[in-house]
Batch of 2 targets.
Target 1
Amino acid sequence: MSSDNARRASGLWVVAPRQAELREEPLPERGSGEVTARALHSLVSAGSEMNVYRGEVSSELEVGFPTRKGTFPFPIQFSYQVVAEVEAADADSAYAVGDVVFCQHPHQDRFVVAEDFVHPLPEGLDARVAAFSNLANVALCGLLDVPVRLGDCCVVSGLGVIGTLVGHFARRTAGTLILVDPIESRRQAAEPVGADAVVAPADAREVVEALSGGRGADVCFEVSGAPPALQTALDVTGVEGTITVLSYYGNREATVRLSPEFHLRRQRIVSSMVGLVGSGLQPRWDKRRRMQVAMRLLRTVDVDAMVTHEFDFADAPRAYELIDEHPNETLGVLLNYPKGGGAT
């Protein structure tokens, strides 16, 4: 790599609705408390990133994503899960040159990032698998906000990456676990979870009634990103049950019928968002602990079953197009970076 290229970086930007491109820019000087890193793998989020790509968000996403670049709605560099190798750090840093780490940073081949957004990989966690760390953290936070008790009937609606991970984690304690998704290929990909039933939304209510002994779900996680699925969650949840919404709907409206289920069953709807954790847990479950636990949990999951596509970083705009135009064919989409990094 030439000295000129060593000071350049290439990042993925969304510049207009459904238009993404790679932009080259100078690599900033590293400051105190920062590391310079070279990307190895990054994971595209089919939820929030696609909402940004389609122009279906407003400026509220500025909160909680300090490593984003640009201004909403466009141009914007918005993503947050990269596995990278440390190229430079302070002498007293917790990180050394050559360390492989998870970074909350947009898709970019080389970058400078504050150590607050860098997380060491636990022993035995493969770098490709580690790219799923942030989504595993989303799933973990959902279960911290609303735990699945031993013996609970748990329903997970939406078998994207996050929903599938919620299923894996909930399986540890759920007495009955039912997974719901309209896409057959996603239902098949979720088989490693070991659920008691994996069904289409049209069959969810009947199956939940049968497997819960008529009680309905104790806990339902709505992770589909599809506003109509919130109604299905209300329908299958039982008396004083809880619907936990991990989905980010962007600026799309979610219309639900609250009578009779919501009112007569005294249900709760809880919002879960990875930037914060449930009331009372903050002092002990800070963001670094949550991320470390999420990464350790990933070692127990068959992540390869969730990877449907891999792209060279140079083809990253095509990855966005694929997810947007063929959502039924995609699940985990990885971007892989060339060895040596740097702009070319």
Target 2
Amino acid sequence: MKYIIGNWKCNPANKIEAKKILLGYKKGVKKNAKAKAVICPPACYLELAREILKNSAELGAQNCHWEEGAFTGEISPAQLKSAGCSCAIIGHSERRHKFGETDQAINKKVIAALSAGLAPIFCCGETREQRIDGQITDVVEKQMEEGLKGIDLNSAPLMIAYEPVWAIGTGQACDSDEAAVVSRFIKNITNEKIPLLYGGSVNTKNAASYLKDADYDGLLAGGASLDPKEFCAIFTALREL
């Protein structure tokens, strides 16, 4: 099974634009045995996405809190599960570096998501400075050790997404040879039991190389997920591999 996860981030600005994107998916994204699409829109569009994509793709969340209750502005895994989500992105680099999320907080979210029946999409990856300093695998290893502490990697229904921070939204995708080094490193830790995704300026031109040459099981797409034609083309390429 190959996977394509669409992370809309804080887009689009209104429900009309969201509906256009979702309807665009229906032309090229269909549930099948070879490839699975998961769409992660802002929470305000989950109900709309659930209605339009019920026969095309699964729903995912972009984030979650680890508890319900007096946490203004947060959303719990149980609420997301009730809204139709099957998974949740946790530990995205923007959450880590722009909102100050620690490995410990991310670990709480992973545990809470699993307890609520959501499959975490656990993100890890290095900054440009860490890459230059040769710390790529050291950073990834620490993020996995702390963020997945207490998780049985042999049975937990989760995915891991390697997303080099310097490649996200920059158009400077990681070279497939370099991405393959990280793929081998992570799969050695997980014994290849957990689907591994690549994220960071994914597009139709480089999508296949990450799966064929770098041995990834799927992709985490940001900007490309807001363009239905681009996203559907990537989905089709995955399905045909």
